[in-house]
Design the sequence.
């Protein structure tokens, strides 16, 4: 019975997805943030170890970017590792960092997308930070989707880093504290975020059924739309992605009003 159902899905889903793409309106997101959540729970559900779950999740990144290419999304932010995750036991963290590094190297090898690391790289092992920077250098001239690779990322840390950068810049110019206080506004802080110069995310997708931000793009997502998907990240399919895009397109955006 299970094999029969899978066969039916293989036949019906491509037609269903094609129809969804044809019916997508023009009001599509320019920037999509994705919280790739559920790798560990997926691994437990299928009776495998945590590393297997992370590898399965890493393998689903390239398909996601291909789906984004298909509908013309310009910026994608992928949250792969939070600052809190850096406190995990070394037995789990070290393989995870290797898997992330391999995934980023593979994306860079494709020469299809422009990779941009975002996060506190100084908190990462030097070898991991160097792999992320090298991938960014190798793809800096690519005319494709800008892909923010959020590793060692936390929203509170990003805002603190932005304020620190703003203060250091002012100090280097000899700006007094009173002058600095007068000059600080939303735009000034935005210019020092990891994503400076980029549009804020229109849509944020979180997989695994969790309905919380957890610190993802806290500043940038103030006016974003959110879509929560029950599927664990390794099981996230093209049809799930298209449903998220369709849900976004059907909403009346109020931009915080």
Sequence:
């Amino acid at each position: 019975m299970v094999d029969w159902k899978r066969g039916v899905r293989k036949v019906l889903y491509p037609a269903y997805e094609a129809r969804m793409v044809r019916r997508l309106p023009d009001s599509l997101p320019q920037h999509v943030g994705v919280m790739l959540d559920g790798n560990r729970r997926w691994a437990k559900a299928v009776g495998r170890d945590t590393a297997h779950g992370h590898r399965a999740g890493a393998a689903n990144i390239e398909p996601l970017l291909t789906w984004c290419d298909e509908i013309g999304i310009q910026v994608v932010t992928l949250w792969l590792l939070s600052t809190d995750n850096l406190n995990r036991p070394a037995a789990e963290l070290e393989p995870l960092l290797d898997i992330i590094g391999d995934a980023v190297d593979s994306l860079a090898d494709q020469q299809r997308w422009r990779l941009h690391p975002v996060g506190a790289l100084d908190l990462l092992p030097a070898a991991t930070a160097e792999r992320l920077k090298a991938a960014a250098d190798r793809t800096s001239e690519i005319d494709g989707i800008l892909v923010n690779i959020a590793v060692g990322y936390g929203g509170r840390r990003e805002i603190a880093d932005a304020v620190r950068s703003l203060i250091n810049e002012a100090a280097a110019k000899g700006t007094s504290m009173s002058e600095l206080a007068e000059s600080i506004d939303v735009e000034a802080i935005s210019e020092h975020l990891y994503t400076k110069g980029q549009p804020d995310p229109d849509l944020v997708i979180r997989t695994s059924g969790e309905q919380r931000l957890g610190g993802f793009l806290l500043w940038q997502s103030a006016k974003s739309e959110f879509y929560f998907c029950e599927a664990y990240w390794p099981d996230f399919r093209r049809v799930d992605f298209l449903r998220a895009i369709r849900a976004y397109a059907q909403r009346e955006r109020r931009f915080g009003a």
Notes: The first strand starts at residue 31 and ends at 35.
